[in-house]
């Protein structure tokens, strides 16, 4: 049977949950997959290439760079892709339109980061939602990473029959606790061997509310905070720690690889940092899934979280080590003090860790692919029947987009142009999917 060839279009490949989840998923997909990033071919692009995935940078210059559409259309046509899968808002809007114009009938989009009042950390507006809904009709299916996100999409007006839940996933074995790794990581990061260590992981942006975490840890004498991530709030968090007299106990580590240590072994990745922690905190008011919480539970850590759909959508017995708390600093401080007084203890990985195994997520995504492919003109081959076909990094058998052919950015805000093309008929629901 002829192999399916898929193109993943994503807004950028800096370090982020959606970007890292794409990399992990591709390791479990049984077909040839290329990745095209509209902007910022950052660290995740390097990781994908190291995995043997072809990565191309479109060179999009901004939201109004409408010349990106014909460049993307040409790339899809030349690549003769059976399926186009888009990720993150800008890529979903431009990618679904380009796939339709290129004649690709099987188009799937994943909604990774939709909150009640924001999308990908930015405030929602009527225009953003209208453009999203107009482009959504151009695809065959929309994937939500949690039941919470699926409900939000349906609340927007996306038909339930078009929404399929494929949760994020992890490779749990990477996070299995090891006492030797704990001691070594503490030594490498300058932590006292017996210190009480609180941890957090995520982009340093206002919505994550890491300032609350810094305040709570600063108020605990002798406690340390390991905070992995980067973003515009980093300088402000450093100043806050200094103002509270806790700069020696607040460790802002910058971006770290969620899959493991650096290639030279000198920089601990997320699994090693989780081993060094005693309790994990997610203070964000709004999440679409909460992948870092699942990773912490896989590492045997007790977890305090304000919101986490990956946990909140399930019965409490699925994650007995996770405790939901309010948004106030005082409540977080009291909870941390309780853990500190009780002493460090490791928990067995709870059932929720098995539920969110990346292989299960990949299998559910293949069901959605088969649905989209079966509805496409010409009945493309099924995703499950395809054989892996990794390309050696640097191979140029498929042409890259031609940046020189780009049109100049349009000064008028007309990103909705051309989005009146009628969508395909409503697809059948994936067996076992939501709805």
UniProtKB/TrEMBL annotation:
Residues 377-435 are annotated as: Disordered. Keywords: Glycosyltransferase, Transferase. Pfam families: Glyco_transf_4, Glycos_transf_1. It comes from the Bacteria. GO terms for molecular function: transferase activity. Coiled coil: none annotated. This is D-inositol 3-phosphate glycosyltransferase. InterPro entries: Glyco_trans_1, Glyco_trans_4-like_N. Residues 15-171 form the Glycosyltransferase subfamily 4-like N-terminal domain. Residues 182-308 form the Glycosyl transferase family domain. Residues 377-386, 393-409 have a biased composition (Low complexity).
